[in-house]
Amino acid sequence: MGTAKFWIVSFIVAVAFLVLTRTLFTNEYYFFAAYQVLQFIVLATAWNILGGYTGYTNFGTGAFFAVGAYTAVVLHKLTSLPVPIMMLVGGVMSGIVGFGKGYLTLRLKGVFFAIATLALAIVAQTFIVNWDFVGGSRGVYVIRPQQSPIYGSYIQYLYSLMLALSWVSVAIARTIERSRLGLGFNAIRDDELAAEAGGVPTLRLKLIATTLSGALMGMSGAPLPYYVTYLDPASSFNLSYAVNSVAMPMIGGMTSWIGPIVGAVLLGTIQQLATVTISSALNLLIVGVLLIIFVIIAPNGIVGLVQARWRAGIR
Hints:
The protein is an all-alpha fold and about 325 residues long. The chain has helices at about 5-25, 30-50, 60-80, 85-105, 110-130, 155-175, 180-190, 190-195, 200-220, 225-230, 235, 240-250, 260-275, 285-295, 300-315; strands at about 140, 230.
């Protein structure tokens, strides 16, 4: 399927899914839970652009996510901009942070780069904790409107925005995978020294990956203050964002655009069920157990396992 056709077909599917869920969901909590699953789709897809396509493991998801969230807090205090504009501004700010992080750290490789990204999250959290304008360590309340500007409740409105962002994120990832940019990313992942010797502008491509990945993460974080209505550093820099954004592509499959979707839907749904039936404290335990299982039985993820079985069946 061509790129333009994929964008059109995927848009139609997203709209149909929105209409279907608004028809079938009879409880507001369903929209609340579905929002989180869609949020994880965006985070997993964004992480995979850098971690899966180029092979650079990023543990700084929480930093980019929080930059988007606190950008929205600042805009909420200073202006009355609609949430979609806040998402765009949050994406720009997180993209700038991603570019800066990439410029400073992309000369590092392997575990050293991963540690540097983790340090970025710690630095960003320390900055937020000491910034009184956005609530500092005590947090900040954000009162969302009772009615959405389009239809239904505000949670349904946020759900619709996150569904739209999920569609954009997945379409971008799939477009990259089928483009020359994706070929350059794959060359860096397979053998960066050989790619550079072959004329691939590795630093430029890695900066594009960090900027785009960071921007999408920031956009997914921007609606968070309106979703939770109370934002503090502990929740915005929650470890689950970093862990899930790494685990979901690994479980789903990191070499394909559909892998992060599979992993996010699977893990996100299980976590929501565990939260309702048992306790949210089990979420990270579930992720850890599933990650160990899939690393052993399917190191290339669910998509890789299915593809291997398909090829074996054809032979």
